[in-house]
Amino acid sequence: MGRAVAVVCPKGGVGKTTVTVNLASALADMGFHCLLIGVDPQCGLLSSFGRDRFAVDYGLLDFFDPEGDPARVVQSSTMPNLDFITSNVWSREEEAELIERAGAEPERLAASLADYRGHYDFLFLDCPPNMGPLTAAALRAADAYLVPMQAEELAYHALPRLFDAVDELARGGAPMPELMGIVLNQVDERTRLASNVIERVRDDYGEQVFQTMIPRTVRLAEVAQRGLPVNLFNRSGAGARAFAALAEEILAAPARP
Amino acid sequence: MGRAVAVVCPKGGVGKTTVTVNLASALADMGFHCLLIGVDPQCGLLSSFGRDRFAVDYGLLDFFDPEGDPARVVQSSTMPNLDFITSNVWSREEEAELIERAGAEPERLAASLADYRGHYDFLFLDCPPNMGPLTAAALRAADAYLVPMQAEELAYHALPRLFDAVDELARGGAPMPELMGIVLNQVDERTRLASNVIERVRDDYGEQVFQTMIPRTVRLAEVAQRGLPVNLFNRSGAGARAFAALAEEILAAPARP
Ligand SMILES: Nc1ncnc2c1ncn2[C@@H]1O[C@H](COP(=O)(O)OP(=O)(O)OP(=O)(O)O)[C@@H](O)[C@H]1O
Ligand SMILES: Nc1ncnc2c1ncn2[C@@H]1O[C@H](COP(=O)(O)OP(=O)(O)OP(=O)(O)O)[C@@H](O)[C@H]1O
Ligand SMILES: [Mg+2]
Ligand SMILES: [Mg+2]
User: What is the pLDDT along chain B (257 residues), one digit of tens a residue?
Assistant: First the structure.
């Protein structure tokens, strides 16, 4: 059975989409079948695979919309072992409708994904920058959640808010996944700010912080422009190597009891 | 009468909070009285002034909550000419309530701010990374809106979605402000990616893109850690100079008819 992993952080721009795409691609490289689900209405996943929003009709909304067609939501990424489901909302009105349906039927995403767990080794859910109904639905559907953060002050401050929100959902009766870990991303180790934040986050969260840190590299910023994960155009670079190391670290970690 | 400016971009992490704090501080330096309003429940403004969320009781929620106390929402930043109103929600439940009230009474924020416009030259509204009810309320309260973006692909893709959302709100009858401009932030001009995106955004949006670009500097990333705008601890650096230039460019621009 495939492992469903929600990629979550209410702070914007920490690298949820970038980590989702490049970690999945590193796992796909090792032969694991991965399905990526764009839960974020921004459609960042679609751009990361070089696809235009007009090119795809079916997606996340079809899981929540009674008139939708869930059978047609999976798109091939043209890369082996890597498929995706995009968020297929564009207007504010559609987005508000999706959020409302996710709030009304929070377990619907989990139920819709159940069929896919038999076909994939990993299912990654790329969440929007908030802890609202869509992120809550993704957490309910997940076995674990992964938290990217920048080695910067505002991202550090977002962590207690994130974990409080997960606790609040659990207190409300929602099944919450285990924390897979916190991964530091866009790290420039030369700066005092970064080493200061890294030290504090390792002090506070200890083993829950991955050893592997993803550096800020131009190649990683180019992923969305090229429409390719970094290991497919810069295999030997620091970015691809870091995501391969992260994949190894995740595979080696025993799933918490 | 003070000018109300909403700082908006649905893409996370482009620098809405950083631009709000440092642009306002550059204007405060020139003698303009500025009020910053944290419309984003993440409370990024509070951190940027080194304040702890437990230290402030009154804020945005008091505008929307019938039992609130709007008279006590303005906090002094300890810097001359710079005050702020923070978002004072923490839990998911409180945030959901704030969003619901903003959706139900979208003109409430504009009405609450009306009193302050006589006391300040500029009122900046720092918005969350989405185009939902809080951003919509901020746009209704504003005379103009400012769009920070990174010189990166996913931020570039966010622009049509942003402008479509503003058009959609206008079609729905909401008074929408004029576009003050798009400001490129976190720019590393040495990369091909940045110059490529800059070229495209200037091609597409022409005069609507400010000439001034804000570079990515470590000092700017340190603002939230120090709890001070960059011109108060690194006055001669590239970050402070860029924000002073942006302030000049904004002051020089004729308000559009
Ligand atoms: N390690 C990295 N090196 C260089 N650039 C990066 C890295 N990680 C992310 N980026 C870039 O930083 C920006 C933010 O990353 P991304 O969009 O993945 O974050 P996000 O958390 O998904 O954002 P949002 O909150 O809007 O969903 C993007 O332009 C991306 O290309
Ligand atoms: N010009 C810059 N140079 C260096 N760091 C910057 C710059 N602008 C922003 N940052 C840093 O980048 C991160 C994102 O910026 P910020 O939080 O202001 O963006 P935002 O759009 O307000 O994010 P959100 O979408 O979460 O509200 C922060 O850690 C901030 O310190
Ligand atoms: Mg994203
Ligand atoms: Mg912000």
Answer: 899 999 999 999 999 999 999 999 999 999 999 999 999 999 888 889 988 888 888 999 999 988 888 889 999 998 999 999 999 999 999 999 999 999 999 999 999 999 899 999 999 999 999 999 999 999 999 999 999 999 999 999 999 999 999 999 999 999 999 999 999 999 999 999 999 999 999 999 999 999 999 999 999 999 999 999 999 999 999 999 999 999 999 999 876 54
Q: How is residue A142 written in tokens?
A: 């997940």
Give the DSSP letter of residue A66.
T
pLDDT of A255 over the 80 cut: no
Angle formed by the axes of helices B153-171 and B192-205, to 10°? 20
| Nearest-angstrom CA–CA distance, A248 and B209 | 44
A121 contacts A82 by C-beta, under 8 angstroms: no
| C-alpha triplet A108, A92, B157: angle, nearest 5° | 100
Q: Which run of H or of E encompasses B226?
A: helix B223-226
**A157 contacts chain B (CB < 8 A):** yes
- Name the DSSP class of B2: P
Nearest to A218 among B158, B165, B191 (CB): B191
Residue B33: exposure state from Cβ atoms within 10 A (0-12, 13-18, ≥19): middle
Q: Report pLDDT for B66.
A: 84
Pocket of ligand 2 (CB under 6 A): A 11-13, 129, 150, 152, 154; B 12-18, 40, 42, 44, 129, 185-186, 214, 216-217, 220-221, 224
Residue A94 touches chain B, beta carbons under 8 Å: no
A149 three-state secondary structure:
strand
Q: Tell me the backbone φ, ψ of residue B129, rounded to 5 degrees.
A: -80, 65
* Torsions phi, psi for A121 (to 5 deg): -85, -35
C-beta atoms surrounding B97 within 10 Å: 15
Answer yes or no: are the C-beta atoms of A19 and A213 closer than 8 Å. no
Determine the Cα–Cα distance for residues B46 and B69; give it in Å rounded to an integer.
Answer: 19
C-alpha B59/C-alpha B37 separation (Å) is 9
